[in-house]
Specification:
two-stranded parallel sheet; about 60% helix; globular; mainly alpha
Length: about 160
């Protein structure tokens, strides 16, 4: 069986499976997982593989209040959030060390990556992506042109 790192595209399905399984086990109503949590899951290295994913979801579901409809970043175990933030900071440091990148260039890179990720999450639907990014369709079109982001039927590049 391939590691979770090699199956990051399966994370939404695996996450949904574990949420349903654990909610049933705990006698709780089914919850959604926020997009921010899914983005963090996709960025994470998963050294503990699938068991770690299940444990993190179970931990989050034990912390969630009955009136909260979805798992948020604040529900995740602290060690997981800290490790994930540390990984992101290290990634930024590595890009700074390697390229001696200006702050403006780094912000542009992060904005471009976020737009691409959101477009992938919305299957290239610009209206939905703009709404998720809290911007107008025109602003998203402008940024897509600025960063040379193109959408084809099969992928976003």
């Amino acid at each position: 069986m391939p590691s979770l790192n090699e199956r990051k595209d399966d994370l939404p399905l695996l996450t949904e499976f574990f949420v349903k399984k654990i909610c049933s086990k705990l006698g709780k109503i089914n919850r959604r997982v926020s997009e921010d949590v899914l983005v963090l899951f996709k960025k994470y290295d998963w050294p503990g593989n699938i068991r770690q994913l299940e444990y993190i979801i179970e931990s989050a579901l034990t912390l969630i209040r009955s009136n909260e409809p979805e798992i948020l970043l604040e529900h995740l175990p602290e060690y997981f959030r800290i490790t994930s933030v540390d990984n992101e900071i290290n990634s930024i440091k590595e890009s700074e060390d390697d390229d001696n990148v200006s702050l403006k260039d780094e912000i542009n890179r992060m904005e471009k990556n976020r737009i691409i990720l959101t477009l992938e999450q919305t299957n290239g639907n610009i209206s939905k992506a703009a709404k998720k990014l809290n911007m107008s369709r025109q602003s998203l079109h402008y940024r897509m042109k600025k960063y040379k982001i193109k959408i084809s039927k099969s992928k976003i590049f």
